[in-house]
Design the sequence.
């Protein structure tokens, strides 16, 4: 375990992981900017979300800018509540400018 902000730790662990996951703690465009810099090209970012359709459309351009491509969405239920996992494949390196500081990400999401 690492106790650090994602945007700070990315400088030390940039593109070192095969897989990054997240819970539904923020909108997809924010999660992608925080998580994709950790994933090496050829790896995956798995975003767990309650509902994905609107957020997915909103985030597609930013995901592409970060080097990713939405591969598929898998839907399932947990105790009758609909959930999904958005599978994003990292196709090329994330530009060095990302992730930005969290305040900037929130102010101007990709």
Sequence:
């Amino acid at each position: 375990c690492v106790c650090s902000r994602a945007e700070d730790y990315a400088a030390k662990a940039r593109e070192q992981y095969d897989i990054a996951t997240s819970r539904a703690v923020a909108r997809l465009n924010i999660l992608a900017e925080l998580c994709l810099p950790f994933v090496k090209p050829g790896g995956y970012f798995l975003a767990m979300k309650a509902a994905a359709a609107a957020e997915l459309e909103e985030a597609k351009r930013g995901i592409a800018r970060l080097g990713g491509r939405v591969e598929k969405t898998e839907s399932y239920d947990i105790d009758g509540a609909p959930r999904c996992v958005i599978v994003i494949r990292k196709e090329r390196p994330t530009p060095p400018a990302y992730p930005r500081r969290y305040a900037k990400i929130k102010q101007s999401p990709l």
